[in-house]
Amino acid sequence: MSEAAIPTAARSAPITLVGPIAWVRTNLFSGWFSGLFSLVLLFLIVKWTLGFIEWGVINAVWSVPNNQTQACRDLKGTGACWAVITEKHRFILFGTYPYEEQWRAFLSILVFIGLFIVSAMRRFWRKELGLIWIGALTTIGVLMWGGVLGLNYVPQERWGGLVITLILATFGLAFAFPLSILVALGRRSKLPAIKALCVIYVELIRGVPLISLLFMASVMFPLFLPEGMNIDKLLRAQIAIILFAGAYLAEVVRGGLQSLPRGQYEAADALGLSYWKKTGFIILPQALRLVIPPLVNTFIGFFKDTSLVLIIGIFDLLTAGKTAIIEPAWQGFGIEVYLTVGFIYFCFCFAMSRYSQNLEAELNQHRVR
Q1: Could you tell me if residue 198 is inside a domain?
Q2: φ, ψ dihedrals at 62, nearest 5°
């Protein structure tokens, strides 16, 4: 056998070309300025991390007896007082919901999280998913209101904390998303009346801040109701959030519709499909796939904007955190509370961000060459 026919063993690429070492060399030390900047940044990260560990873990106070916060005050800022979270975590999560009934609010939070997880799995993207939503939201309503199955009735004025944030965000985006699709299609309609109404709605809602809509929903809207008729302020706030989110999401969806090549519309027309079949089976799936990042970015923004309901006296997660440190014994420990509330917001927002990235990559696999 000639030397040319002798097979050679496969060799791995040098570590300077692939792998972690290659990534560090390419991205962090590609030049003298890049290397210097990376070293300075690494030094600051290590310094701040060690300082936070010393403040938040080593020197921290985790509990105090009977609201005796002198141990926390003796630290004089050298350590965190996580005892405020130990003492006030129920109020932050559940607001003024009756103490002995807070297990119901906790179960409602778990149902919300389970509903989000199930909705994120593509194998559940069937008609049955609608029944799952109806069942989950009904369960949450029964748990929060009570009055049936032996549960004590709890009025909405006692709701607060994380449950309110999840209710406003979930219902707001669940109703705003289909509304945005209809409005986006209406703005592209050939019927002048429908197009004008959609344009007026979008421009009017996007032209004012959410705070003004919440204020009008709380103060002005009841003035136009018949005498003796009253709508709960939580429902009024929910309607304002739905209308506001729907206008912004409509522009995102309209951008996806406009980004599709004209050939997609012409191909659908050539197949003889009706308007709704063409839109539902060909146009919308492609348009929504293109705008997943801005859609999720809008979702994340509105999830955090639910904290603005403070202006109409609704105790959402952030408002409950602010109220928890009004008590004189716990004044001065706001950093710990805000870090905890911020961590809760981060968990939900980061989960949405990561899910959108994975979903976008999965739906665009056919474009990978």
Answers
A1: yes
A2: -100, -20
Structural tokens at position 253: 């969806």
Segments forming the whole domain that contains residue 254? 163-314
- Residue 310 inside a domain? The answer is yes
Question: How far is it, in rounded angstroms, from Cα 145 to Cα 133?
Answer: 18
The residue type found at 208 is: V
Residue 142's CB is within 10 A of a number of other CB atoms, namely 15
Contacts of 103 (CB under 8 A, 6+ apart): none
Q: Can you give 47-65 as a three-state secondary structure string?
A: HHHHHHHHHHHHCCECCCH
**Helix H or strand E encompassing 237:** helix 233-259
Q: Which helix (H) or strand (E) holds 219?
A: none
CA gap 295, 360 in Å, rounded: 11
Do 237 and 214 form a contact (C-beta atoms < 8 A)? Answer: yes
Q: Where are the alpha helices (DSSP H) in the chain?
A: 20-27, 32-53, 70-73, 83-94, 102-120, 128-145, 162-187, 192-206, 210-215, 233-259, 262-270, 275-278, 284-290, 292-305, 317-324, 334-363
Strand partners, 161: 316
How far apart CA 345 and CA 317 sit, in angstroms, is 9
Cβ atoms of residues 286 and 264 within 8 Å = yes
Residue 68 in tokens: 């005796």
Half-sphere exposure (Cβ direction) of 63: Cα atoms closer than 13 Å: 3
Question: Any idea what the CATH number is for the domain that residue 181 is in?
Answer: 1.10.3720.10
Residues 80 and 297: their CA atoms lie apart, in Å, by 33
Q: What angle do CA 22, 27, 33 make, to 5 degrees?
A: 120
Query: What residue type is assigned to position 339 of the chain?
Result: L
Distance CA 116, CA 349 (A): 12
Counting Cα atoms < 13 Å in the Cβ hemisphere of 42 gives 9
- Cβ neighbours of residue 77 under 8 Å, at least 6 residues apart? none
Walking along the chain (369 residues) 10 residues at a time, the average pLDDT comes out as: 57 60 78 85 92 87 77 80 87 90 93 91 83 90 88 88 91 90 89 91 89 83 72 84 91 88 81 82 85 87 87 85 84 87 92 87 66
CB contact at 8 A, 267 and 204: no
